[in-house]
Amino acid sequence: MSGLSWIKGIALLSSIIYLCSCASIVSGGPKTLPIMSQPDEANFEIIDIRTGNTILKARTPYTATLERSAGFFQNAKYKIKLVKDGYLPQEHQIDSSINGWYFGNIIFGGLIGILIVDPATGAMWKIYDDNINVKLYPDSKEGRISLATEKYNGEEPYKNDDYNQAISDTTTAIGYYPEYIDAYCLRSAAFVRIGELEKAMSDLNKAIELKSDYPRGYKERAELYIKKDEFKKALSDLDKAISLKSDYADALLVRGKTHLRLNNNAEAKTDIRSACEMGNTSACHFQF
């Protein structure tokens, strides 16, 4: 092979590799990430979750540089721990996820970009956060309540069907705020979703113990009793819920369906029609 041909071959190979790594071209390199807190001047450390090593210690505000990959075909995972005198410690997790440009290799690059270049350079991963801004809560009763109800209420993961995370969040919330009734109810609902009925019942019993005039607690405990075919206990709880909230359409619908299972047809029709009149669309569409 002549010198000129050899140079052309090297140039061609370099071009192929360059073109086959779509994510590396478009968005390669480490992530520059501002770390902030409210208020500022909080001390923080960033921990590589995969290794357990602390990779940075600094004070907010600070701009950190983070690798997006933890190795070949491994995304990076980081935990930020923040502390400040007079405030509750906070944690925040950062995970890199698949870079949308990585799939550009299917069209433009081929297998070299998909299987070698982008995984090796870490460009197949992306940290989508533009910045991290953590609210700190005062180390006081009010601060603990605010932290529990604002950050760890479990509502977002529950809506996203991430029931284990909802359980984890509400457990943290209860640790900060042991009288957080809604957290017990939501955790109970999450336990039901993963089949942990006894734990769900325990949470509802606790919610009712904390607030004996809490209609939601009785209604949701009644639904658990129904799952266990304990219909008399369910009716007792539903009666209590409706006595506490006479326009509780959801409870009326559940009580109507329970009466129907017990062949109490007249009572069932009365409850379900009442629920419909109160605006419950499921009751209005119910077929006897």
Defining traits:
288 residues; Serine Threonine Protein Phosphatase 5, Tetratricopeptide repeat; four-stranded antiparallel beta sheet; three-stranded mixed beta sheet; 18% strand; elongated
Strand content: 15-25%
Question: Could you tell me the mean pLDDT?
Answer: 86
Query: What is the name of the CATH architecture of the largest domain?
Result: Alpha Horseshoe
Q: What is the structural class?
A: alpha+beta
Which parts are unreliable, with pLDDT below 50 for 5 consecutive residues or more? 7-26, 101-120
Full CATH superfamily name of the largest domain: Tetratricopeptide repeat domain
| End-to-end C-alpha gap | 87 Å
Number of domains: 2
Radius of gyration computed on alpha carbons? 28 Å
> How many distinct beta strands?
11
Give the overall shape, derived from the CA principal axes. Answer: elongated
Largest sheet composition: 4 strands, antiparallel
Query: What is the CATH C level class of the largest domain, in words?
Result: Mainly Alpha
CATH topology of the largest domain: Serine Threonine Protein Phosphatase 5, Tetratricopeptide repeat
The topology string of helices and strands comes to HHEEEEEEEEEHHEEHHHHHHHHHH
Number of helices: 14
